Amino acid sequence: MSPLFSVSRTLAAPPDEVWRLLVEVESWPRWGPTVSHVRLDHSGGRIHDGSTGMVVPPIGVPLPFRVTDYVEGHRWSWRVAGVPATSHRVEAVGAGTRVTFGVPWWAPAYLAICELALRRLERLTLAGD
Question: pTM here?
Answer without folding.
Answer: 0.94
